[in-house]
Amino acid sequence: MSLITRVARVAVLVTLPVSTAVAQDSSRTPWVQEVVNSTTLGKRVVYVASPDGYAHGIERYGVLVLLDAGDLPQFRLGIAQAAYLADNEPGIPPLIVVGIVNGADRLHDMLPAATGSSVTEFKTAGGAAAFADFIVGEVLPMVRAKYRTLPMTILAGHSAGGLFAVDVAATRPSAFPAIIAMSPALWYNDSSLVVTYADAIAKSTARPRLFAASGGLESDIDVTTRRFAQRLDSIMPASHTFAYQRYPNDTHALTPLSSLPDGLRFVFAPVSLRDLPISSVDPTADSATVFSALSASEASYATGARSLLLPDAARASAQPARLPPAREVKESRASDRGVPAERQTLSEVRQRLRQPRRWLPRRGRYDGGHRATSEGSSSRARDGCTGGSGNERQAGEAVAEELSLGTLADSRLIEWILIDLKALLHIAKGCRRPQRRVPTAG
């Protein structure tokens, strides 16, 4: 290896956290500064950014641990990316973002013991194990004691932090359900860790979801990360979940722009609402098909949620209220009080939605093909309705009232299901199908 290549490698790792020394003003930052008096590492600083609305709610949140929080532009980017995905990607929940600030020697914290040529290049390396103990044994317990958290925890790191993330996946795979390694410096220790880490991860009985990424313009990191991905793909059992993404036009500094959001999408793929069976049900399907898809969606979501240590049912409070009957909703609307802020578990919503089937017409398929009766036709025409028998209209209107509670959406899973069911029942009334929108948080 040439001297120029070695100098370039060291320079990348040493100069990455460009904003470490910037003073913090808590009144101007979207996070709270916490101090951890470590028994092994001394006084360390941790940043904790809570989701919007955290202070006024009771919900619990998963945790995203971001390394290199001293690099303020990158840390701010990570907070913004997590929040934006939670608002716009169905299935990705809001997260508490915990930023880990390094001590005086960042590379000591991030790098495992040096071997080969790395011994002379990184003389202070070797603190990775102690740093991992600090995060798992001291930082996370502090965060869980002071904040409303779920067991779901993601570790994400870039460059030397990406190498540290892969090291954690290999040496303590049960510590994090998911790991995102962005541009990991796998060339360290003469690239020997490519094989060492891949083999350890493949043999592990724990199965964290692991995402790795590299840029086409970062030379040795790109080469070694691709080798790592190829080896892991070739030897890991089917029970393990791994994905690799390459960004051919990205330099080392730019890979977090794409790899963190892609990594979060990969992590939460098991609970993606876009892939639930209910989302692909034909709008003209009969009720049996709809409720079968609803059951399958519930089961699929529960399985995925359990794998991520998330609640396996959509639940926003310990004591969810019942779904008010249509009569109460009408009275509430008539008195201009609005709909009460009710919260439901998915199983409760499903059980409630089954009840109207006893008085739905037994036609098997609701296509709105009947001619409208003269009674009430003019008012329904104004609503865009095209027909439907009297029984269908009565049944459809009653069920639609049951489904008209926007406050049910304390989970986007429930809202997604209700959107499809509302569309189907709208057709049962002989009306035009409302435009389907991707649900938003709220």
Alpha-beta classification: alpha/beta
CATH homologous superfamily classification of the largest domain: Alpha/Beta hydrolase fold, catalytic domain
Question: How many β-strand runs?
Answer: 8
**How far from one another are the termini?**
55 Å
Strand order of the largest sheet: 1-2-4-3-5-6-7-8
> What name does CATH use for the topology of the largest domain?
Rossmann fold
> What is the strand content?
5-15%
Unreliable runs:
18-26, 314-350, 352-389, 391-413, 427-442
Give the % helix.
40-55%
Mean pLDDT, all residues? 76
Task: Count helical runs.
Answer: 15
Quaternary status: single chain
Q: Taking Cα atoms only, what radius of gyration do you get, to the nearest Å?
A: 26 Å
Index terms:
Rossmann fold; 442 residues; 2 domains; alpha/beta
Kindly describe this structure.
- This protein is α/β, with parallel strands linked by helices and 442 residues long.
- It folds into 2 domains: 3-15 and 23-267, 3-Layer(aba) Sandwich (Rossmann fold); 274-428, no CATH class.
- Helix content is 42%, strand content 12%.
- It has 15 helices and 8 strands.
- The protein has an 8-stranded mixed sheet, with helices on both faces.
- Helix 6 (160-171) runs parallel beside helix 7 (193-203) and helix 7 (193-203) packs parallel to helix 8.
- The radius of gyration is 26 Å and the shape is globular.
Quick rundown:
It is built from 15 helices and eight strands. The protein is an alpha/beta fold and 442 residues long.
Structural topology:
Blueprint lengths: L2 H13 L16 E7 L3 E8 L11 E6 L5 H17 L6 E6 L5 H5 L7 H4 L6 H19 L2 E10 L1 H12 L6 E5 L10 H11 L5 E7 L4 H16 L6 E6 L7 H13 L19 H21 L18 H9 L11 H9 L22 H6 L7 H14 L8 H17 L14
Parallel strand pairs: 3-4, 3-5, 5-6, 6-7, 7-8
Antiparallel strand pairs: 1-2, 2-4
Helix pairs in contact: 2-9, 6-7, 7-8, 10-12, 14-15
